[in-house]
Amino acid sequence: MTIRPLTVIGFDADDTLWQNEQYYRLTETQFRELLTDFAEGDRVSERLLEAEKRNLAHYGFGIKGFTLSMIETALEITNGKVPTEVIGKILAIGRDLLSHPVECLPHAREALEALRGRFFLVMITKGDLFDQERKLAQSGLGDFFDAVEIVSEKSATTYRGIFGKHGEGPERAMMIGNSLKSDVVPALAAGAWGVFVPHELTWILEHVEKPADAPRFREIGTLGELGGLIDEICQ
Fold first, then answer.
1. pLDDT at 1 over 60
2. What SS3 class is residue 101?
3. DSSP state letter for 105
4. Which of 1, 11, 79, 157 is the most exposed place for a label (fewest CB within 10 A)?
5. From CA 91, how far away is CA 102, in angstroms rounded?
6. What SS3 state is found at 32?
């Protein structure tokens, strides 16, 4: 009996299957405008990023933590004197972020359609549970997946657990995503294939060096190239 080199394929969601970071950037622009009377826009962005770094361990990834970080930044920049109406507007733009439309990226549907039935497909994403569930439902991509895993962090341990649960371990699994830090490097460390699909907008905290020398690292320009890559690996 021939042993298949791949049985399970994992997909990141935000900025891999659908647009996400662009909405955060628009919200940050609105936030900067709210604080123009108190600080320059670049300083607001710097302080916001510092708050996000501090708060990841407390609030995790997602819109709710981002909104709390905006409020914290506003309090810091104004020395606690931020007008209540500004706080209200921050909450409003945070709610808007929770209801932004879902725009699938090019080739996402076609790639999933071509792989369905050939492999066990699992969406592996981090962030707010309800928001990720909303986006998956509105994307129309949910039926392509055999399983969905919404996790607090993506580490080698996370991938070992998921690929062991849904398949035969990471050695016969692949993870695909736009973040080297979250999707590719830890998947490689777990023993899986890691496929990098760059996105023009990737959160600065997700940037790490490209693991170009890793034997199981691959990079493609779009999901339209995924089928050919998988066929090559499975030969």
1. no
2. coil
3. P
4. 1
5. 21
6. helix
Burial class (CB in 10 A: 0-12, 13-18, 19+), 31: buried
pTM of the entire predicted model? 0.89
pLDDT digits (tens, 9 = 90+) for 210-219: 999 999 999 9
Q: Would you give the DSSP letter of residue 193?
A: E
Among 177, 178, 182, which Cα is nearest to 154's? 182
**Amino acid (1-letter code) at residue 208:** V
Take residue 39 and report the two structure tokens written for it: 């600080």
d(CA 61, CA 58): 9
Q: What is the mean pLDDT of residues 123-138?
A: 90
Tokens 């935000």 belong to residue: 14
Chain mean position to CA 105: 13
C-alpha 130/C-alpha 231 separation (Å) is 35
Strand partners, 175: 10, 194
Please write the tens of the pLDDT for every residue from 134-187.
Answer: 999 999 999 999 999 999 889 999 999 999 999 999 999 999 999 999 999 999
Q: Is the pLDDT of residue 203 over 80?
A: no
